[in-house]
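Sequence only, no structure available. Ideas?
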Amino acid sequence: MMRFWQFVRRFALTGLAVPVCFIMYWFVFKGTGDSLYWLWPASIQFMGLDGPAPEPTSTVVVVYTVAIFENILVYSVVGALLWVSIKAVRRGLRAFRSASR
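Reply:
I predicted one. Tokens follow.
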């Protein structure tokens, strides 16, 4: 059985993989997957880069870095909550089965 931190770590790695895949897609195909933004909720911060003048490279790098780390955090929290939920449901099912015997 998988332990809590292994489970959360897998969600965190997924939270890292999603933005990396999006960034690679954007650089290769020069387009956006508008319908898939829900996979990267922190990408809403990119609206701050759409000013009238181009932003300095350092600002762009900081915004991307923060958005990626926030996405990792969001995915980690979702993984932790999912772990707790699964454990609670399993405990409830075990209690129900033992009570019905």
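Residues 22 and 28 are 10 Å apart (CA to CA).
Hope that gets you unstuck.
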